[in-house]
Write a structure and sequence with these properties.
Elements lengths: L4 E7 L5 H12 L3 E5 L6 H13 L5 E4 L16 E5 L1 H10 L9 H18 L5 E7 L10 H20 L2 E6 L2 E6 L2
Parallel strand pairs: 1-5, 1-6, 2-3, 2-4, 4-5
Antiparallel strand pairs: 6-7
Helix pairs in contact: 3-5, 4-5
Length: 183
């Protein structure tokens, strides 16, 4: 039996899901650990990262981990809430590390999905609330490129894994959260 309470926040890009997840995290506990997955690759991404930093309370902890899912639950124990922002960025980061000729191969899909399974298993012993953010990829059309289709397939599978384990799931559309799972 999992000790962790998992709240999944999903929605489209720029839907307001991160801001909503920050609100949920702030209401859930005095302090939170923000697990950030963004990589500063250019000026636009630098501005996005800075926006996230500016929004969150200064007393929150932060781990920047674009490539590794922290599996040691001890990292989280001093915080009643963990905000993981976000799984879709983490999946993208995993894919960008794969050589071009290897992209889309089953072994890489399996490795990414196994990483999520391992993290979920490790987090079962965390006695707190995890608010996980992810982008919904199931509402648009099929991507035009093989990389885009692979991303949609993998991200969709990751989202389903998280959704099944989550106690609550929210979908954010145009800044408005809709509760789709949980009491």
């Amino acid at each position: 039996m999992s000790l962790m309470k998992l709240i999944l926040v999903t929605g489209g890009v720029r839907s307001g899901k991160s801001g909503f997840a920050e609100e949920v995290s702030a209401r859930a506990g005095e302090s939170a650990l923000y697990v950030a997955t963004g990589v500063n690759t250019d000026k636009e991404m630098e501005a996005r990262i800075q926006s996230h930093r500016d929004r969150r309370p200064s007393h929150w902890g932060c781990i920047e981990t674009p490539y590794d899912l922290p599996m040691d639950v001890g990292v989280y124990q001093n915080y009643p809430v963990v905000l993981f922002d976000c799984f879709s960025t983490w999946v993208t980061n995993q894919m960008m590390r794969i050589p071009e000729g290897e992209m889309g191969k089953e072994k890489w899909t399996d490795a990414i999905l196994q990483g999520v399974d391992d993290w979920l298993t490790a987090m079962e012993s965390y006695e707190g609330i995890v608010v996980a953010v992810t982008s919904e990829v199931g509402l648009g059309g099929v991507a035009m490129s093989s990389l885009g289709r692979w991303f949609q397939d993998v991200q969709g599978a990751v989202n389903q894994k998280l959704g099944v384990k989550a106690n609550e799931v929210y979908m954010v559309v145009s800044g408005i959260p809709w509760k789709v799972k949980g009491d």
